[in-house]
Amino acid sequence: MNNRLVSVCIPVYNAAKYIEETVNCFLLQTYENVEIIIQDDFSTDGTWEILNDLFGKNPKVSLFRNEKNLGIGPNWNNAYEKATGEYVIIANADDIHNNTFIEKGLEKLTDQQIDFVSFKYKMYFEKTGLKKFTSKNEFMKSGYVENAFEKIAFENPFHIIFTVFRKKKLDEIKLNGQLFLNTQVCDAELMLRYAENRKLYYCDEVIGYYRIHETNNSTIPLGELKSYYNDVLPIWHSTLSKKFGYKFRKGIIMGTLFYIKAMVKGKSPWNYKLFFNMLRFSII
Length: 284
Fold this sequence. Notes:
The protein is of the alpha/beta class. The chain has 2 domains: 6-218, Spore Coat Polysaccharide Biosynthesis Protein SpsA, Chain A (Alpha-Beta Complex); 220-283, no CATH class. Helix content is 39%, strand content 20%. It has helices at residues 19-27, 47-55, 72-80, 101-108, 148-154, 167-171, 186-195, 223-244, 246-264, 272-283; strands spanning 6-12, 34-40, 61-65, 87-90, 96-97, 116-125, 130-132, 143-145, 163-166, 200-212. Strands 1, 2, 3, 4, 5, 6, 7, 8, 9 and 10 form a 10-stranded mixed sheet that branches. The radius of gyration is 19 Å and the shape is globular. The termini are far apart.
């Protein structure tokens, strides 16, 4: 396996505080045949300058910058399209990976039946220093995940940034020539699309930390909720409804009720399009 190139794609926007640590996580991997592709989405906080100063002359690192800010999906696509490896990792610019991540992922991928390998991870709350499991992955054990598509559709205990993919399999599922949708939850949607007809192996060893801080995309008010109901469900509703029936409909209804309750209590802002789509998908 040591002669097989692994492409690490790191899309980045305004991550000056974290990017050095993230890149070094991959430069210090025990598996050495790695190319690191960093795609900057026209950062304004000095990220681009830091990247050039620290890694501009490193032969393993390739730096690219968009001429203007394109957003999450297009920037992730730009990073992925430059990958030339047999295996691909998509990493956030602010998270932490153990130095054995790639080596252990490729060990599992020697089994040709496995299409992707995902690892256990912990949430790292930067403000308090707390590190803990999510409720979704704390008790999962290593092994083949027979119902990966269902798990990702309903709870998604697997995170794209702690997953190793076969590139040829990713290329098979592009939509209109692009791997990622132009939406905030493009990572979760890709995991769902990839898992539909592919074999996942899960490793219950903690391989890294997903950092929670004030500038996470997930902290944008209603961002992920709007992305899911406005962009992802219109594509996946028919498939998920036919495959999972009442279980899927119940999840949509519960999500709608949760949003209504949050609005009534003043904990969530009103969004007409989001509310309309929630009601629509609860009924059809």
